[in-house]
Design goal:
Layout: H1 16-22, E1 26-30, E2 33-42, H2 49-62, H3 65-68, E3 72-82, E4 92-100, E5 110-114, E6 117-126, H4 128-141, E7 146-155, E8 163-171
Antiparallel strand pairs: 1-6, 2-4, 2-5, 3-4, 3-7, 6-8, 7-8
Length: 174
């Protein structure tokens, strides 16, 4: 799996037909999840954002981080965006992880508790990198009551060309 490179968003020109697909979402309520992985600070306006996030995905799979994480709840990879310093253009922590049933006792991991609460759930299909990039580009244009606390992508499979990705955007309580 690879990351959706945030730096490439400006270069993607989705068709109107594709963009309409990304407008559909459902409101779901999630229980708290424990995620374990690796992280780095990022900013969507930084020239190195693609290298930072892509580097996390590379380390996660090619340097054995994924295999070393104990107590996985499932085989899905997560791309998590948390610890926002503000809203969309502020610094945040990017994390590549997997959901676990409990926190690890040892290891040099980042542990994140994805908060319980309301999320807008988008289901994206297509090229793993391009589809996610187009979805985020569209989500950023939507007037959602975002918490800017924790958003995440849940990769349902490892298909690069025909992936299914669920994107969860944290929403304020009603």
């Amino acid at each position: 799996m690879t990351c959706c490179c945030h730096d490439s968003f400006d270069r993607i020109e989705p068709s109107k037909e594709r963009m309409d697909l990304f407008m559909n979402y459902e409101i779901v309520t999630l229980n708290e999840k424990i995620a374990v992985g690796i992280s780095a600070r990022a900013n969507n306006n930084a020239p190195d954002v693609c290298a930072v996030i892509g580097g996390l995905w590379n380390r996660f799979f090619k340097e054995g981080v994924y295999e070393s994480i104990p107590h996985k709840a499932n085989e899905k990879a997560l791309g998590i965006y948390m610890d926002y310093a503000g809203e969309i253009n502020a610094d945040y922590t990017a994390m590549v992880a997997c959901e676990t049933t409990k926190e690890p006792v040892k290891g040099e991991y980042t542990v994140c508790h994805i908060p319980a609460g309301r999320y807008a759930k988008f289901v994206v299909h297509g090229d793993m990198v391009q589809a996610v990039a187009m979805a985020w580009q569209e989500i950023w244009q939507m007037d959602l009551p975002r918490t800017f606390q924790c958003d995440f992508e849940e990769y349902q499979d490892d298909s690069m060309d025909n992936a299914e990705i669920h994107i969860y955007v944290g929403l304020k309580a009603e």
